Amino acid sequence: MGIRKFEYWGCQCDRCGCRLNDGAIDAWAEKRDVVEFIAEESNWLNIDGKWYCPDCYEVDDNTDEYVPIKTP
């Protein structure tokens, strides 16, 4: 069969650009599998339609909601 092009789903932080992975896997065959992994296995969050890794969001002291960290 040889080398072939494959298309996979993954998630990249909308703030810093790092990719979601669990130490072994960073791509999934189905989009729903990525969303399921994020919901069950990671600390990544979707805030206003964008995805953020744990280093790129914080709790807003005024609203007690998660917000993206502001870039200085």
Would you mind describing this structure in some detail?
The chain is of the alpha+beta class and 72 residues long. It is 15% helix and 17% strand. It contains one helix and four strands; from the N terminus they run αββββ. The chain has one helix at residues 31-41, and strands at residues 45-47, 50-52, 57-59, 66-68. The strands form two sheets. It has a two-stranded antiparallel sheet. A hairpin with a 2-residue loop joins β1 (45-47) and β2 (50-52). The chain is elongated. The mean pLDDT is 87.
How many E-type strands?
Answer: 4
Helix content: 10-25%
Choose one word for the global shape. Answer: elongated
Q: How are the strands ordered across the major sheet?
A: 1-2
Oligomer classification: single chain
Radius of gyration, in Å, reads 15 Å
Strand content: 15-25%
Key descriptive features of the protein:
72 residues; alpha+beta; two-stranded antiparallel ribbon; 1 helix; 4 strands; 15% helix; elongated
Summarize the structure.
With 72 residues, the protein is α+β, with helices and mostly antiparallel strands. Helix content is 15%, strand content 17%.
